[in-house]
Amino acid sequence: MVEKAPRKQFVVHLIGTRPNWPDEMTQEEEKVMGEHFVYLKELTAKKICLMAGPCMGLRVGLIVLETESKEQAAKIMEKDASVVAGVHTFEVYDFHLALWAADYTPPGK
Hints:
Strand content: 25-35%
Largest sheet: 4 strands, antiparallel
Helix content: 25-40%
Number of strands: 4
Order of helices and strands: EHEEHHE
Shape: globular
Radius of gyration: 15 Å
Oligomer: single chain
Structural class: alpha+beta
Distance between the termini: 40 Å
Strand order of the largest sheet: 2-3-1-4
C-alpha cells in the first residue's frame, strides 16, 4: 500500500495584472472571473480550497489551499482561468492553519 504524503496548507496571493484592476473589468474579464469562481468552488467541494475571497482594500485575492506540496498548490493555480487568461499572477506561501471556527457559515451563505 502506498502511503499518501501528509497534506499542508498554503496561502495563495492573487495579484491583478493591471493598475485599474478590478474597478474597470472588461466583459471578457468578468467572464473569466466567473470561471475562476467555479474552479475554486469545485476545489472547495474536494476540500482542496479551504477558503477564498478578495481583499477589497488591498485589491488582491487570498486563497488557502491544502495539498501535499507547494509545487502541487502552484500547479493547481496555474490551471485557474484567471491565471491562464493573464488577469492574475500569483504567489504561494507556506501556511500553518492553527485555529478555525467549527461549523462556521459566512453571513449570507
